[in-house]
Amino acid sequence: MMRAMYSAISGLRNHQVMLDVVGNDLANVNTLGFKGNRVTFADSLAQLQRGATGATATQGGQNAAQIGLGVQLGSIDNLMQSGALQATGNPLDIAISGDGWFRVTTSVGGPIEYTRAGNFGRNTNGDLVTQDGFLVVGRNFTAGPPPGPGATDIAINVPTSASNIAVAPDGLVSYDDALGVRQTAGYISLAKLPNEAGMERSGASRWATSPSSGAEIVGTPGAGVYGKTISGAVEMSNVDMATEFTNMITAQRGFQASSRVISVADQMLQDLVNLQR
């Protein structure tokens, strides 16, 4: 009975974690570029009651007899599939149709973070930035379209006097200057990682590399395995509400079942204590 109570406690604890994850996903159902999570469980230790035996000439073998000792958190997986695209009409709202991540940084040459939230704007210098001020990292135009091996990272600068700003499917950012001459600001760069699910959340829909994710592989939109850029659209959260509400019910019922096991074990202990009367 005591084993049952401690097993049930582990069930309560881990179903609470599952509900925490579901709650966070539902809270971010309208967060641009948000990626949902999935919780998996794994069984915990098992107590061996009787070992397994092999077959003999006169008798068959016996399987081991084990009693499980509860559940543990197996993993919290990042679900990295794309969210739905929503048209906005703003040329600086950019979505990725396909694979890849926007590269953002606080300063060119500094640590790179990654996002799929493409609701960009411009700072007072005309640099393309995220809503929290991170520079959108691009590739220089001089290396040729698309940028070749000699391309370097740049901040994509669109002067405040520019007009008719456009972002092509290959990531080329262009605009009309004050004289009406068409100019190019560079290519938006994209990154892929060997294990994208291994990235770590930085907050504000940004992600950072980890030892599990591997190092970035940089390219440009539409080149090879990289998706194309779509101007005038943003990527929404990939959270599916129907799935999340189903997971919420599953977490609730699992929690209730574990609570019931504790109640029954407690009643059995109470009956045992009452035997002395």
Verbal overview:
- This protein has 277 residues and is of the alpha+beta class.
- 21% of the residues lie in helices and 32% in strands.
- It has two helices and 21 strands.
- Strands 7, 8, 11, 12, 13, 14, 15, 16, 17, 18 and 19 form an eleven-stranded antiparallel sheet that branches.
Structure characteristics:
single chain; alpha+beta; 11-stranded antiparallel β-sheet; two-stranded antiparallel ribbon; elongated
SSE ordering: HEEEEEEEEEEEEEEEEEEEEEH
Determine the fraction of residues in helical runs and give it as a percent range.
10-25%
Approximate strand percentage: 25-35%
Largest sheet: 11 strands, antiparallel
Provide the gyration radius in Å: 27 Å
Q: What is the count of distinct domains?
A: 2
**Strand element count:** 21
What is the number of helices? Answer: 2
Uncertain runs: none
User: Outline, from the CA principal axes?
Assistant: elongated
Assembly type of the chains comes to single chain
Mean pLDDT: 91
First-to-last CA distance = 21 Å
Structural class: alpha+beta
